[in-house]
Amino acid sequence: MSKKNKNNTKSKLIPKLRFPEFKDKPQWEVKTIGEVTTNESSALIQGALNFVDEGYPVYGADGIVGNIDFYQQEEPYISIVKDGAVGRIGLHPAKSSVAGTLTYIKPANKELYNLEFLYYLFHKIDFSYYKVGTTIPHIYYSEYRYKTLPFPSLAEQERIGALFSTLDSLIQAQSKEVQLLRLRKKGLMQKMFPYEGETTP
Length: 201
Fold this sequence. Notes:
This protein is an alpha+beta fold. Helix content is about 25%, strand content about 20%. The model has no long low-confidence stretch (mean pLDDT about 90).
């Protein structure tokens, strides 16, 4: 069976875990990525960009690579690395851009599909299945657009997206706190314990 046809079966389902207010709501509908999203390519070549101190961020596979004096996207969007470290997913703010090794993914209809829900749902996709090439791996939207995913109503999507966004914010805050504690520990150890051959710290 080809990659395009895999999982391309229409169906409905009810998740095992659901918010109480949605337990009696309609089942989730299974749809293809191509039905619920749009895809745009970036023509920005990272090495050819003129970076400025203050401007609009450009994202690469590992985060912000610099600022430029223009942007390609007016609204928030999802990015997926399509060349190299394929399959890495990012959620980026309005008035920003991505390098040409990434692609833009946005809801086909914002009244039906929530961006944050799509972002977290995309983490369930094994993009390595769609990888081609050996020297520099690639993935193509034209292939994984046929992948099917489950979708509830917009209200339920928004509830789920907000939950995971809150959890990510808490994780990020805790990570910063842990890093500060590690730095404090390192500083205290340097002040309290003498180095080898010394009698005082």
